[in-house]
Amino acid sequence: MPRQIKITLERRGVSCVAELLEKDAPRTCEAVWQALPQGGDI
């Protein structure tokens, strides 16, 4: 099952689910996964 992350913009009241494309960019996906959780102002 592919890894997915949920991205939420609280001030706007919206969220989405993003699938990590591990076959296309395994090192980038692993770096993103290891950096989670994240939070803060955008």
Task: Kindly describe this structure.
24% of the residues lie in helices and 29% in strands. The chain contains one helix and two strands; from the N terminus they run ββα. The mean pLDDT is 94. It is elongated. The protein has one domain. The N and C termini lie far apart (29 Å). The protein is α+β, with helices and mostly antiparallel strands and 42 residues long.
List keywords for this structure.
two-stranded antiparallel sheet; single chain
Summarize the structure.
This protein is 24% helix and 29% strand. It has 42 residues and is α+β, with helices and mostly antiparallel strands.
Number of strands: 2
Major sheet characteristics: 2 strands, antiparallel
Provide the succession of SSEs: EEH
The number of distinct structural domains comes to 1
Unreliably modeled segments: none
Distance between the termini: 29 Å
- What is the share of helical residues? 10-25%
What order do the helices and strands come in, and which of them pair?
Blueprint: E1 4-9, E2 14-19, H1 26-35
Antiparallel strand pairs: 1-2
